[in-house]
Design goal:
Helix content is 77%, strand content 1%. By secondary structure, it is mainly α.
C-alpha cells in the first residue's frame, strides 16, 4: 500500500501539474539557490527523487539545464524526499480517511487536472494509512526472537546493514519507502539508534541507484547527472558510517521524539550532504566528465556550434548551417539503410536507424537552442537578413527531424514486418518502391545543395521533383490496387506494407522540398506554395 500510494502521488501530480513542474524545473535552474529549491519542491510534489533525477537528466541532455546546476537540483531533491518522510512521521494518520475520500471525489471529475489531484490526494491518504498499518502489523514481529537475533547481527556488522538497506531501496526504487519501513520497525525502540542511522544511510545509497540504471542507455550528458548523484550519496554514506555512533548520541540527546529518529537522521544527513557538496559541484562535474567522456568519432565531437561565435551572427549562423547539414547527412544514411534492408531483406541493416534518429533529435534540438541565442548580446539583435537565415536553418532542422521520425517510426517497422513475416513484394511493386527510394535519396542530396547554395533554379527543380513524386505515388497506388483486383497473392499479402511505405515516402519528399520554399519565395517564384508557370 505504501508503494502504491507513492505511485499514485507521482502519477497524479504528473497528470495534474506535470507540464508546469517541468517548465518550472527548467526555468528555476538559472542559479544555485533557485536550483536547490526547484529540486526540493519538485520532489515533494512528485514524492520521488528518482522521478526528479530522471527529469533533470533529460533536461541536461536537451541543454535546458546546465550540468553544474543539475547536481544542485538533485541535492535539493534529496532534501525534498527527506522532508517528505519527516512530514509523514508527524502522526497525521487520522487524516487518511478524509484525504482518500477527497481524492475519490476528485477522481470523478472530468478534467485531467482534477483527476490528477484526486489521485495524488488519495495517494497521500493511502501512504499515511499504510504507515499506521505497518506500525500495527509489525508490533508482533518486534517481539520475535528471530528478528531480535537478526537485528543484533546487523548491529554488529554495520557494512552489512548498510548494504542490506541499500538493496531494499533499489528493489523498491524508493529510499522514502525504506525509511518509512525503518521508522515503523524502530518505533518501539527495539533497534539501537546507531543501527537506525546505518539503515537510513543504506536507504539513501540505494535510492541513488535506480536513476543510474534508468539512464544506462541515455546520452553521456544524462548519465553524468545520475552518476554524480550516486557519487555524492556514496561519498556521504562512506564518510558518515564511522560516525554513526556519535550521531546516535546526538540524536538521543535531542528534544525531538525518539520514535521519529529514522526520519530525523534522514533529513539531517541530506542537509549535511547538501551543505558540503554544493560548493563542490564544479569539481563533481569534472569528475563525472572524466569518468564518462564523449566518445571520439561521434557526431557530437564534430559540432560546429561554437558558443564563442554567438556574439558574431555571421559566424554563428555559418556554424549552425554546417551543423544542420550534418543532420541531412544522417537522414541520408537512414534512408540508404532502409532502402538496402528492403532490397536485401536483411533485418540487420535496420539496426542503426534508431540510433541515428536519436542523434538527429539531439542535434536538431541543439541547433534550435543555439540559433535562439545568436545575437542576444548585441544591442540591436539580428538584422532582417540574419533573422531570415536563422529561421531557414531552424525550419530545415525541424523538417529533417520529421523525416527521421517517419523513417524510424514508419518505414523501419514496415520493412521489419515484411522481413519477419517472410513476405515478398511483387516484382512490379518492389520496382516501384525502389524507384521511389532512389528518387528520395537524390532529393535529399539536392536539398542539401539547395540549402548550401540557395540557388533558385535548383530550388525550383526540387519542388518540381516533389510533384513528380506525388504523381508516381498515385500511379503506384493505382497499379497496386489493380494487382489486388487481379488476385495477385504477393500483392495481397504485402498490401498494407506497400501502401504505407508509398505514403511515408511521399511525406518525406514533401518535407525535403520545404527547404526550397523560402528561396523561391525570396526570388518571387512562389505563389501559395506553387511555382509560377513560365511565361
Amino acid at each position: 500500500m505504501l508503494l502504491f500510494g507513492l505511485g499514485q502521488i507521482k502519477d497524479g501530480m504528473s497528470r495534474a501539474f506535470g507540464a508546469k513542474l517541468r517548465i518550472g524545473l527548467a526555468a528555476g535552474t538559472r542559479g544555485g539557490f533557485r536550483s536547490f529549491i526547484a529540486g526540493l519542491v519538485a520532489t515533494i510534489a512528485l514524492q520521488s527523487s528518482t522521478a526528479t533525477a530522471l527529469m533533470v537528466a533529460s533536461f541536461v541532455e536537451k541543454d535546458l539545464i546546465a550540468p553544474a546546476m543539475a547536481q544542485i537540483v538533485l541535492l535539493g531533491a534529496n532534501v525534498g524526499t527527506a522532508t517528505t518522510a519527516w512530514i509523514v512521521a508527524l502522526g497525521l494518520g487520522w487524516l487518511s480517511p478524509m484525504l482518500i475520500l477527497a481524492g475519490v471525489i476528485l477522481l470523478r471529475g472530468k478534467s485531467v487536472q482534477r483527476q490528477g489531484a484526486g489521485a495524488a490526494l488519495a495517494g497521500v491518504g493511502l501512504m499515511l494509512l499504510s504507515l499506521h498499518l505497518l506500525s500495527a502489523a509489525t508490533d508482533p514481529i518486534r517481539q520475535s526472537p528471530a528478528l531480535n537475533l537478526f537485528i543484533s547481527m546487523l548491529g554488529n556488522a554495520w557494512p552489512v546493514a548498510l548494504i542490506f538497506s541499500a538493496v531494499l531501496a533499489v528493489l523498491a526504487s524508493s529510499s522514502l519507502a525504506i525509511v518509512v519501513l525503518i521508522l515503523s520497525l524502530a518505533a518501539s525502540g527495539g533497534i539501537e539508534t546507531s543501527l537506525v542511522i546505518v539503515l537510513v544511510l543504506g536507504a539513501n545509497l540505494g535510492g541513488a541507484v535506480p536513476p543510474v540504471l534508468a539512464t544506462l542507455k541515455a546520452p553521456v550528458a544524462a548519465r553524468r547527472v545520475a552518476l554524480g548523484n550516486l557519487i555524492v550519496r556514496t561519498t556521504g554514506c562512506v564518510a558518515a558510517l564511522p560516525l554513526a555512533g556519535y550521531g546516535a548520541a546526538l540524536l538521543d540527546m535531542s528534544p525531538f521524539s525518539h520514535a521519529n529518529l529514522a526520519v530525523d537522521a534522514h533529513l539531517l544527513f541530506n542537509l549535511a550532504v547538501a551543505v558540503i557538496a554544493w560548493p563542490l559541484s564544479p569539481l563533481l562535474l569534472r569528475v563525472t566528465t572524466a569518468l564518462l567522456p564523449e566518445k571520439e568519432g561521434t557526431e557530437t565531437s564534430r559540432s560546429y556550434l561554437d558558443s564563442h561565435d554567438l556574439g558574431q551572427p555571421v559566424a554563428a549562423l555559418a556554424g549552425a548551417s554546417r551543423e544542420v547539414m550534418l543532420v541531412g547527412d544522417l537522414i541520408e544514411r537512414m534512408l540508404r539503410q532502409a532502402s538496402d534492408a528492403m532490397h536485401d531483406s536483411d533485418l540487420s541493416k535496420l539496426n542503426d536507424i534508431s540510433t541515428l534518429e536519436g542523434r538527429v533529435d539531439s542535434i536538431q534540438h541543439a541547433i534550435k537552442v543555439y540559433v535562439s541565442k545568436v545575437g542576444q548580446d548585441g544591442q540591436d539583435g539580428l538584422c532582417q537578413k540574419d533573422q531570415r537565415r536563422a529561421m531557414d536553418i531552424v525550419e530545415y532542422a525541424i523538417n529533417l527531424e520529421h523525416i527521421g521520425d517517419i523513417i524510424e517510426k514508419g518505414i523501419r517497422p514496415e520493412i521489419a514486418k515484411k522481413i519477419n513475416l517472410g513476405l515478398r513484394f511483387s516484382d512490379d511493386g518492389k520496382s516501384e518502391l525502389e524507384r521511389l527510394f532512389s528518387i528520395t535519396l537524390d532529393n535529399i542530396r539536392m536539398a542539401q545543395s539547395v540549402f548550401a547554395t540557395r540557388n533558385a533554379d535548383l530550388a525550383r527543380r526540387l519542388v518540381e521533383v516533389k510533384e513528380d513524386v506525388r504523381r508516381l505515388e498515385k500511379q503506384s497506388s493505382e497499379r497496386h490496387l489493380q494487382r489486388l483486383r487481379d488476385g495477385r497473392a504477393d500483392s495481397i499479402q504485402t498490401s498494407s506494407v506497400h501502401l504505407d511505405m508509398l505514403r511515408d515516402l511521399k511525406r518525406i519528399n514533401a518535407h525535403i522540398a520545404a527547404v526550397a520554399h523560402p528561396i523561391l519565395d525570396e526570388s518571387g517564384l512562389l505563389i501559395e506554395s506553387r511555382i509560377k508557370q513560365a511565361g
